[in-house]
Design brief:
The chain is an alpha/beta fold. Helix content is 39%, strand content 17%. The protein has 12 helices and 12 strands. The model has no long low-confidence stretch (mean pLDDT 87).
Length: 327
């Protein structure tokens, strides 16, 4: 019967390197690991090969590049609580995804949840890292062309809901504050579905990396009463926080002067304005529960699709949205 020493001699490496390769431990290149595993199989040494899940610590890796904002903190805590129910802990990386994956693999983490924006385009390096990953991969929010389980969130549907909510209250002039992404698409589709006109001047581009567009916003909120916006959809809690400062500075009353609906279901939304904010988005607790459950499913095989779990968008109406007659 072949021994680990035989495999080391055949592979021209040390016994320690063979042990690390067969037990999914860090410190061995992927190329060397694959070569050692192949030799072990040829020597009928399969009993020594442990799966990634067997060798891994009781940890879920969470990769969330460029994470910021309160929703990030709430989601991490929700995932941590779900992991703790299974006696697992969570390791979080906000590094570039390809770097984060490499680190997780070196740590022998066998379950990874990757939070991906729909607008992100994966690099070739990231795709290679994902394809060579031997554990269970769950992609949340985006779409990665590799075998993985997925938690899908159609953010554009959330904004469509917001438009329908405001139109149902009688608003015909609805503005949007945010960046160009799938939420802006939802805003446009929502207007069309409610047979409301699309007016480019009502779309205010706002990013946390640029000064808040006070002048543009004032033009649609404080201008001619016959054409001004009577309602606003705000695409994130970060943008809402900046809008709150604007509203206080210019004396804009919510909902008397303008109704507001914002994306993100987090507790702070009830306190960012003088009145609790109507919100739309996914239920964070449900999202975390489904993501962690998928992380404990077997790895998807080959290039076939894994399990996909859609998270419904829900709207919680509060006093920041009222009929135009209040404005």
């Amino acid at each position: 019967m072949a021994t680990i020493r035989d495999i080391a001699e055949a592979a021209n490496v040390t016994i320690s390197t063979v042990s690390k390769a067969l037990n999914n431990e860090p410190g061995v290149s992927e190329q060397t690991r694959a070569r050692i595993r192949q030799i072990a199989e040829q020597f009928n040494y399969k009993r020594a090969i442990r799966t990634a899940a067997d060798a891994a610590p009781p940890v879920i890796g969470l990769i969330w590049p460029q994470a910021n904002g309160l929703a990030f903190a709430h989601t991490i805590n929700a995932i941590r609580r779900e992991a703790e129910k299974r006696n697992y802990s969570v390791v979080v990386s906000t590094a570039l995804a390809e770097h984060a994956f490499l680190t997780m693999k070196q740590l022998s983490i066998a379950r990874i949840i990757y939070w991906m924006s729909p607008s992100w385009i994966p690099t070739d390096d990231l795709l290679l890292q994902c394809q060579s990953y031997e554990g269970t991969l769950v992609v949340v929010g985006g779409n990665l062309p590799v075998h993985s389980h997925q938690v899908t969130m159609h953010r554009e549907h959330a904004i469509e809901q917001a438009v329908r909510h405001l139109a149902g209250l009688g608003h015909e002039t609805i503005g949007f504050i945010g960046i160009k992404n799938e939420k802006l698409i939802g805003y446009t589709v929502g207007l069309l579905g409610c047979q409301l006109p699309y007016r480019p001047e009502l779309v205010i581009q706002s990013s946390i990396y640029r000064p808040f567009p006070d002048e543009q916003l004032s033009a649609i909120l404080l201008g001619d009463p016959a054409t001004r916006a009577t309602a606003l959809i705000i695409e994130s809690q970060g943008t809402l926080r900046r809008f709150a400062r604007y509203a206080k500075r210019y004396g804009v009353r919510i909902p008397e002067d303008v109704s507001v609906v914002a994306y993100d279901h987090i507790p702070e939304m009830e306190e960012m304005l003088e009145t609790p904010v109507t919100t739309v988005g996914p239920n964070i607790e449900e999202l975390a529960r489904e993501a962690v459950e998928l992380a404990f499913m077997p790895k998807t095989g080959g290039d076939g699709p894994g399990k996909t779990v859609p998270i419904a968008m829900e709207l919680i109406a509060r006093s920041s949205s009222g009929s135009p007659s209040k404005n």
